[in-house]
Amino acid sequence: SLAGPLAGLLVAGLIVRQGGLTIVDSLRDLSDAPASAHETEKLKQTCLSVSGVIAVEEIKARKSGPYLYVEATVHVDGTISASAAHRIAELTKQELLKRHNPRVANAVVDVNPLGSAGLGENSPHWARDYDYIVEEIKKAAKSVEEVVSVSEVQVYYKDNGEIASKVDIVLAHSLTIKQAHSIAVKTRRAIEKSLPGMGDIDVDLELDETDVKR
């Protein structure tokens, strides 16, 4: 009977075909083949979840073995500083690596400016223009009645996206240490109220030299 040999050939053919498909899939995974549309969409949504990212212009993910290498271009507010834009790019990269660990081995994120209508209410405070932050801090500090003047404001962008600031305020020479400390606390709270989400705020005190001469 030919039934036995034919059945054997059929089974062997199916095994060879399945083996061939497995080899093809393995070669695809080892090559620079693009990620699936579903996985690419997940990567895009991760980018959009980062504060300051307005839109994703382009995203590519290529396979290399079990890993993905991602290249993304995102849109940010065109009026923020270069330093702030760099922070958004870095945070987007970190978010891709964290959410898709260990699948994403590396990510490169570029930023392009979008529009020039100014900073919207939804823009994160840490991503605002450097000069804007300095002026807001000065205004907040000067709103404290006992502050004679603001001699210096320094702003630092941290790797985690927060803003740290150092503020030098001038106080009357006749104040006690306890009074000066209380004013420093009031100044810090005024800045936090003006710029919610600020990171470390270091308030340094200086004495009014003109007050000494009087």
Label the overall shape.
elongated
Radius of gyration from CA coordinates: 29 Å
Number of strands: 6
CATH architecture of the largest domain: 2-Layer Sandwich
Provide keyphrases for this structure.
alpha/beta; Cation_efflux_CTD; transport; Cation efflux protein cytoplasmic domain-containing protein; elongated; Alpha-Beta Plaits; monoatomic cation transmembrane transporter activity; 214 residues; 27% strand; 3-stranded mixed β-sheet
How would you describe what is shown here?
- It is a single chain.
- This protein is of the alpha/beta class.
- It has two domains: 37-113, Alpha-Beta Plaits (2-Layer Sandwich); 130-207, Alpha-Beta Plaits.
- It has helices at residues 3-30, 37-48, 82-99, 130-142, 177-194, 209-213, and strands at 55-64, 67-77, 104-114, 149-157, 163-171, 201-207.
- The strands form two sheets. Strands 1-2-3 form a three-stranded mixed beta sheet.
- α4 (130-142) crosses α5 (177-194).
- One of its GO terms (molecular function) is monoatomic cation transmembrane transporter activity.
- Keywords: Transport.
- One of its GO terms (cellular component) is membrane.
- It holds the Pfam family ZT_dimer.
- Residues 38-113, 133-204 form the Cation efflux protein cytoplasmic domain.
Give the SSE layout:
Blueprint: H1 3-30, H2 37-48, E1 55-64, E2 67-77, H3 82-99, E3 104-114, H4 130-142, E4 149-157, E5 163-171, H5 177-194, E6 201-207, H6 209-213
Parallel strand pairs: 2-3, 5-6
Antiparallel strand pairs: 1-2, 4-5
Keywords: Transport
GO molecular function: monoatomic cation transmembrane transporter activity
Domain Cation efflux protein cytoplasmic: 38-113, 133-204
